[in-house]
Amino acid sequence: MLHLDQVEDGQSVDIYNMQGVLVDRKTTQLHQIDVTRLPQGMYIVELKPQRTSERYKLIKVD
């Protein structure tokens, strides 16, 4: 699970691989999203609040 304390529930979250390909699109629930199905690697997580977007790097390890 990826915990996103600063994110409102119901917010759209896009996850891209390092080549810029969209690999998953989620909606936050209880300030978290499930990333267990993603393989290990580096990803860009794009949060989409009302009018702007924020991007963060995610490194997933099992």
Tell me what you see in this structure:
This protein is mostly beta strands and 62 residues long. It is built from no helices and 6 strands. It has a single domain (2-60), classed as Immunoglobulins (Immunoglobulin-like), CATH 2.60.40. Helices cover 0% and strands 50% of the residues. It has a 4-stranded antiparallel β-sheet, with no helix packed on it. The chain has a two-stranded antiparallel ribbon with strand order 1-4. The radius of gyration is 11 Å and the shape is globular. The N and C termini lie close together (11 Å). The model has no long low-confidence stretch (mean pLDDT 84).
Question: Could you spell the SSE succession in H and E letters?
Answer: EEEEEE
Uncertain runs: none
Derived structural class: mainly beta
Q: How many structural domains are formed by the residues?
A: 1
**What's the CATH superfamily, by name?**
Immunoglobulins
CATH architecture: Sandwich
- Approximate helicity band: under 10%
What is the residue-averaged pLDDT?
84
Termini separation (Å)?
11 Å
Q: What kind of sheet is the major sheet?
A: 4 strands, antiparallel
Could you give the count of β-strands?
6
Question: Which key phrases capture this entry?
Answer:
62 residues; mainly beta; Immunoglobulin-like; four-stranded antiparallel beta sheet; two-stranded antiparallel sheet; 0% helix; 50% strand; globular
Helix and strand arrangement:
Blueprint: E1 2-3, E2 12-17, E3 22-27, E4 32-33, E5 41-48, E6 54-60
Antiparallel strand pairs: 1-4, 2-3, 2-5, 5-6
